Amino acid sequence: MNSPESPVYHKGQFLFGLEQARRAVKADGEMVVVEGYFDAIALQQAGIRNTVATSGTALTADHARSLRRLVRGVALTYDGDTAGQQAMLRSLGVLLAEGWTW
């Protein structure tokens, strides 16, 4: 279930699986970013432990800043449908605006 926003839960500031992924990432490593909770769970169970989900929302500036504190690179692995492709393009813009370079 994709929980709604509330006074104490802001999707744009929360990365699902971050605590688990943080343990798997080195300071100069990479984080895998997926769309949904189940995507993150499946990848972590498959051994790709440096995985977080944007909780059904697009990557935000807050997400980008949180990731920037932990890793040097991200791999955006959104769904291959049109919505996922569009979200990936928007996310690249957010990352660039927050100072990420490739």
Offer a few descriptive terms:
single chain, 102 residues, alpha/beta, three-stranded parallel sheet, 4 helices, 3 strands, 41% helix, globular
Task: Explain the layout of strands and helices.
Blueprint: H1 18-24, E1 30-34, H2 37-45, E2 51-53, H3 61-70, E3 73-76, H4 82-97
Parallel strand pairs: 1-2, 1-3
Descriptive account of the structure:
Strands 2-1-3 form a three-stranded parallel beta sheet. The mean pLDDT is 85. The protein has helices at 18-24, 37-45, 61-70, 82-97, and strands spanning 30-34, 51-53, 73-76. The chain contains four helices and three strands, in the order αβαβαβα. The termini are far apart. It has 102 residues and is an alpha/beta fold.
Characterize the biggest β-sheet: 3 strands, parallel
Give the termini separation. 35 Å
Q: Tell me the strand percentage band.
A: 5-15%
Name the overall outline: globular
Mean pLDDT: 85
| Record field, number of beta strands | 3
Spans of at least 5 consecutive residues whose pLDDT stays below 50 are: none
> Strands of the largest sheet, in order across it?
2-1-3
Number of helices: 4
SSE pattern: HEHEHEH
State the share of residues found in helices, binned by percent: 40-55%
Structural class: alpha/beta
Rg (CA only) = 13 Å
